[in-house]
Write a structure and sequence with these properties.
heterodimer, A: about 280 residues, mainly alpha, MetI-like fold, two-stranded antiparallel ribbon, B: about 425 residues, alpha/beta, D-Maltodextrin-Binding Protein, domain 2, 2 domains, four-stranded mixed sheet, about 50% helix, globular
């Protein structure tokens, strides 16, 4: 009986919207009219025949891959480095705080900052390239279809690597010191300590941060919407913006709901797979 | 004071406040100008209206331009729809009319004859299937604004009238070592203004008017490809990184003298006067998009008024329409001109000596134009514009061809037709 309120809360605010979203995906409807037409699975058929949908999925997976590599991978390396004996405690704290700061800045502010960094005429990046004699590399970073998606991805890595790093720092700090002392007695160097003690000990936090990062990659919206709005020529389209565009620009709430169903399905399945994979190792 | 008296007093106050609340008319008013001096203008309008109508309280809501386009759709589907709200005439508003969200104000405008206070050409954009749905707030048109000093340096003594003259002038300006045309197309509404002009000039009028109707438009006329070919010829004369620059950035570069001209809205001229270098406003001249040898009427001008409409769900239609008339009327029109430099749709608002010559000259271009041509992005179905805008950005980067671009538009138009 005591769990009933919690169950009710979860049912109303989690499961019910998911079911309603799937129901809405079977209709053609918009936000400013009560009229709705039943179309069955037509939205899904159309989606699976739309090349932009596959571009969006590809970009989300690309984003996930880079994020796991940088945020989790590099975050882990930085965490181990800062908690090791390489630099003093004070410097470690300073760098930890400095690297964490970007994650507390709001996404619109960060997107605007990097928008100006990437500006082809007055931006810092092209300016630096000019100063070091690499004028041939100058480009319109957000308007060039070859560089646009990577430009947005790298901005996110700058913003969130510090956040994941701090989560891993907390996990490392919980490792019993005796393990490291024993390793030192056995002649282990820093690299061996990291590989045989630190990383196995923070496995569960690595699993959590990988899942957070992956799910975050599929919830991606603000960065793309502010910096490129899916352009140039839909090359930076991601599922979140694709869904928003359908629902609010094309007046197709039903189609947007269908995209939302796909986002949910992908993130749900991958989360289960990842959890099973980490449990078995 | 005994309890009886206190009780009577309390009941009286309670009843009076209830009556007052019942008598007060609350209106929600939504517009898209979040910055100054526009914000202050609307606040002043509301203040003056409330002073004249003490029983009316108006709650002003603002949303910035791009966000407005999406937010209004959501608001109209709720009980919180604004009573009076901004809109762009054309398909942007027509879909709301079809969904029954916009009030037909024809009877209100006829009953007191106020319809005839407005220029007919500026009311027509707000007419849909024979009924009037909105009123113009500001006139607008698109012209090339050029720097007379740079033109003189290039040996050009008058503005070009034809496309051939225009192309020759562009060559002369390019010979000065500059990219002659400032153009920021990061948000592709900017290119829609170029293509609106070129489509209208290159395609017979009856065909492009039909094609803007999503239920029947086919976009198969070869004139559309011709229009894009002309646009493609202009691309080398645009500044670098066109698709990476915002319109405002390009305008700054133009005002700094880095480019000889820019295709601008007439409503931007007061902004140039406010934000540009001192004296820059006196260095500029204007000319409409040059005439081509296409089948369209070469004297039409691209540009449509922007305006306001009343929600069909308003609980106070009389008061809402009255406020709309006040907002777009003569008195507020003069205030709008004074504070913002814009003309509304009221006839004979000012005499020529009351405003700067260039402001009067450009407004007369609009009023003298035989017909105005709507901005392409406002006149198209959202899905058609989505594909068209992508193709136009590709063409601006010269990574596609005019024929391929129109093939994509024809394909999406076919898909959209099947939904009606």
């Amino acid at each position: 009986m005591y769990v009933l309120p919690a169950i009710a809360f979860v049912l109303v605010f989690v499961y019910f919207p998911i079911v309603m979203n799937f129901y809405n995906s079977l209709f053609r409807m918009n936000s400013y009219s009560d009229a709705r037409t039943f179309v069955g699975f037509k939205h899904y058929v159309r989606m699976f025949n739309d090349p932009i949908f596959y571009t969006a999925i590809k970009n989300n997976f690309l984003y996930a891959a880079f994020s796991i590599l940088f945020q989790v991978g590099l975050g882990m390396v930085l965490a181990i480095f800062l908690e090791g004996r390489f630099i003093g405690k004070r410097m470690g704290t300073f760098f930890r705080n400095t690297l964490f700061i970007p994650s507390i800045i709001s996404i619109p502010a960060v997107a605007l900052l990097w928008y100006f960094i990437y500006n082809p005429q007055i931006g810092l990046l092209n300016g630096i390239l000019g100063v070091v004699g690499l004028d041939s590399l100058k480009t319109a970073w957000l308007a060039n279809p070859k560089t646009a998606i990577y430009s947005v991805i790298m901005m996110s890595q700058w913003q969130y690597t510090g956040y994941i790093m701090v989560l891993l720092v907390v996990a490392i700090q919980k490792i019993p010191r005796e393990l490291y002392e024993s390793a030192v007695i056995d002649g282990a160097n820093e690299f061996q300590k990291a590989v045989y003690i630190t990383i196995p000990s923070i496995k569960s936090m690595l699993a959590v941060t990988t899942i957070i990062t992956f799910i975050g990659s599929f919830k991606l919206f603000s960065e793309i919407y502010i910096m490129t709005d899916g352009g140039p020529y839909n090359t930076t389209q991601v599922l979140g913006v694709y869904m928003y565009r359908a629902a609010f620009k094309f007046d197709e709430m039903g189609y947007g709901s269908a995209v939302a169903v796909i986002i949910f399905t992908i993130t749900f399945l991958v989360s289960i797979l990842q959890l099973k994979s980490f449990k078995s190792t | 004071m005994n309890k009886k008296v206190i009780t009577i007093l309390l009941i009286t106050v309670f009843l009076a406040s209830g009556l007052l609340l019942a008598a007060t008319v609350n209106l929600k008013f939504l517009h898209r100008w979040t910055q100054e001096p526009d914000r202050s203008f609307f606040e002043e309008v509301v203040k003056e209206y409330e002073a004249l109508n003490p029983n009316v309280k108006i709650d002003i809501q603002t949303v910035s331009n791009d966000a407005f386009k999406e937010k209004i759709k959501v608001m109209l589907g709720t009980a919180e729809a604004p009573d009076v709200f901004f809109t762009w005439p054309g398909e942007f508003t027509n879909r709301f009319i079809r969904a029954g969200n916009v009030l037909d104000i024809t009877p209100y405008m006829l009953e007191d004859g106020s319809m005839f206070h407005y220029y007919g050409s500026q009311l027509i954009p707000f007419v849909y299937e024979g009924a009037l749905y909105g009123l113009p707030y500001r006139l607008d048109g698109k012209v090339f604004v050029y720097n007379k000093e740079i033109f003189a340096q290039a040996g050009i003594d008058s503005a070009p009238q034809t496309l051939d003259e225009f192309m020759e002038d562009l060559e002369k300006l390019a010979a000065l070592g500059m990219k002659p045309i400032a153009f920021g197309n990061e948000r592709p509404w900017a290119v829609s203004h170029y293509i609106a002009a070129l489509n209208q000039k290159s395609v017979p009028e009856e065909i492009w008017e039909i094609d803007t109707d999503p239920a029947i438009g086919t976009w198969t006329d070869p004139g559309y490809v011709k229009a894009l070919e002309i646009y493609e010829d202009l691309v080398p004369y645009f500044n670098n990184f066109t698709n990476a620059l915002k319109h405002d950035q390009a305008r700054v570069a133009f005002m700094q003298g880095q480019h000889a001209m820019m295709y601008l809205e007439i409503v931007e001229i007061p902004e140039i006067e406010r934000d540009g270098p001192a004296g820059f406003i006196d260095k500029i001249g204007v000319f409409p998009f040059p005439a081509t040898d296409g089948p369209g009427n070469q004297s039409y001008l691209v540009g449509y008024p922007e305006g306001f409409v009343v929600s069909s769900k308003t609980k106070h239609p009389e008061e809402a329409v009255d406020f709309l008339k006040f907002l777009t009327g003569k008195e507020m029109g003069r205030l709008e001109l004074e504070m913002l430099g814009w003309f509304n749709g009221i006839k004979n608002l000012v005499s020529p000596d009351e405003v700067k010559p260039i402001v009067f000259e450009t407004t007369q271009l609009i009023l003298d134009s035989e017909k105005m041509v709507n901005w392409l992005d406002s006149s198209l179905h959202a899905k058609i514009w989505s594909v068209y805008s992508v193709e136009l950005q590709k063409l601006t980067d010269l990574v596609t061809t005019p024929q391929k671009a129109m093939d994509a538009v024809i394909k999406i138009a076919t898909e959209v037709r099947s939904e009606f």
